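Intended use. Records like the one below are meant for learning the mapping from a protein sequence to its folded structure. Do not use them to infer anything beyond what is encoded.
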Amino acid sequence: MTDYIQIGKIVNTHGVKGHVKITPLTDYPERFKKTKKVLVEGRNGEKTEYLIEEVKYFKQLIILKFKGVEDMNSAELLKGLYLVIDKEDAVKLPKDTFYIFDLIGCDVYEGEEHLGKLKEVLETGSNDVYIVEYNGRELLIPALGWVVLSVNIESKRIEVKLPAGLREL
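Structure written out for the chain above:
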């Protein structure tokens, strides 16, 4: 089974010639300049391939023109749908950097103690925070190098060394 990741959401039309406005759902919006085709995921999960003819950047949005979408009415049908790519086509990340979707569901350990599964990542600006379900409550773990000792995506395991008092908060 192929895994897909969302890289954008079609939020509106743009003009009368079939352009669409995209809210990027990627840390790498420049990828659209290099991408020749994307899949648009329909409301029922079906995926349709579209060739990209034109890319423009406008404020926080991306304006795309798909081949075969020639007017506003055709573009309107795509509104609310997501652009997805095969996970294999994701931007390669630097060493010790991970996609959030790869981290979600990893088992988090401190030594041999299983703390729980990582269920969400908060992006705070200064550092990410891992949210782990721990003894019926949420344990917030700062994603700092001295706290997160190792991440193994293949074995879905994260090793941490919690700061003193963190469990008691």
